[in-house]
Amino acid sequence: MPPDHPASSAWFDRARAVTPGGVNSPVRAFNAVGGTPRFIRSARGAWLTDVDGHDYVDLIGSWGPMLLGHAHPEVLAAVSEAVARGTSYGTPTTPEVELAEEIVARTPVDRVRFVSSGTEATMSAIRLARGFTGRDLVVKFAGCYHGHVDALLASAGSGLATFAVPGTPGVPEASTELTLVLPYHDRAAVEKAFAEYGGRIACLITEAAPGNMGVVSPEPGFNAFLAETCARHGALFVSDEVMTGFRASRRGQWGLDGATEGWSPDLVTFGKVIGGGFPAAAFGGRADVMSRLAPEGPVYQAGTLSGNPVATTAGLTTLRLATEQVYAHLTTAGDTIKAAVTESLTAAGVPHVVQSNGTMFSVFFRGEPVRDFDDASDQDTSAFAAFFHAMLDAGVHLPPSAYEAWFLSAAHDDRAVQAVLDALPAAARAAAREGD
Ligand SMILES: Cc1ncc(COP(=O)(O)O)c(C=O)c1O
User: Fold this and answer.
1) Which residue, of 7, 129, 377, 390, has the greatest Cβ tally within 10 A?
2) What is the pTM of this model?
3) 257 is catalytic
């Protein structure tokens, strides 16, 4: 018998009465997999505990931030001390300077501005790119998610339409008319867009390595090609490292292929890990571009809680503890889990492909590799839903969507990894029963 969850169900009913869908971010609602989301009352290390008292190995990791695991003692101690000194002053503080220094030391950015969410970071980076270049158009890739910025919630126009159409009601056409959406990895489409509109393109924004259509590693040279194309046309190359920053590797995606291929972004966005579980994000980049930002330059951008001392203390402590050993551990634990996933799904006859990028990975329920959003969309989502629920019933909480990375942490020790391995064979058989 699967464990029941009356308290989560009751909270979900209460939540739905007062909040749309009962959640404050859509993917949490389990719409893609069905059933009732678990309400979590506490978390420690690699484990979540729900309001019914069930424990789960956590493979969501708050969608990326929890690199060190939950309630890390040193992060908690630093945050407690910061909280005791007061939580927000609206004046400059020292931790925001130290966190900026840490980011500048580990990435190709010269200067950083803090904000409170990844959405704010990408929105602000685009404004700055437009302000710096004096141009309007933005290029993005289908399947890359950059937060819920109007201009970036855009879908490729159908047929011959060049410019994007709104990706959701509520986004005016006027916002997406300035966005070009191209298929990921399609160099010819990039060349064509720049040949046609190069003089009007302010920036190209890309997930440094896509994680929001599942994990897709950029093919060798692709980011370098994008950076070079932007440079040739006087557009800025914006590398969105909200998910990959300090997660795919100690130096983010840039540390994986930027350093070796010799590309460098003009602007970078960060989030998730740099907040250590608190709302902090940032955008940064070339000194000459960043100096166009108010109050040094004319491009306006601001935030009441930006650089908040508690959030930046959490992020700073997390980054300082994010040593090479942490990433080596993520690699080892990830390799063990990936091998077991492959073994179990293969034994059960479930078509699948496991894709990795640095320390990040995800599992696609299709037999062929995924290079772009069309590929990612062609999955057996009912097989994934059955797999997801079997894992959940066995005490492993995967992201409730087939399009997401599985997030590990430094706290995923042998016991947590073994719990994942133990759950896999039965979940693979459940997926086989549901598969197309
Ligand atoms: C690559 C990327 N950019 C931007 C965002 C938006 O960040 P936030 O949810 O903090 O607004 C996300 C969120 O998942 C992301 O993965």
Assistant:
1) 129
2) 0.97
3) no
**Per annotation, catalytic residue among 184, 272, 372, 403:** 272
Nearest atom within ligand 1 for CA of residue 117: 10
Nearest CA residue ID for atom 3, ligand 1: 146
pLDDT averaged over every residue in the chain:
96
50, 58, 240, 266: the catalytic one is 240
The pLDDT tens digits for 380-403 are: 999 999 999 999 999 999 999 999
Q: Whose CA is nearest to atom 7 of ligand 1?
A: 118
**Ligand 1 in contact with 400 (CB < 6 A)?**
no
User: Hey, what are 60's tokens?
Assistant: 């969501």
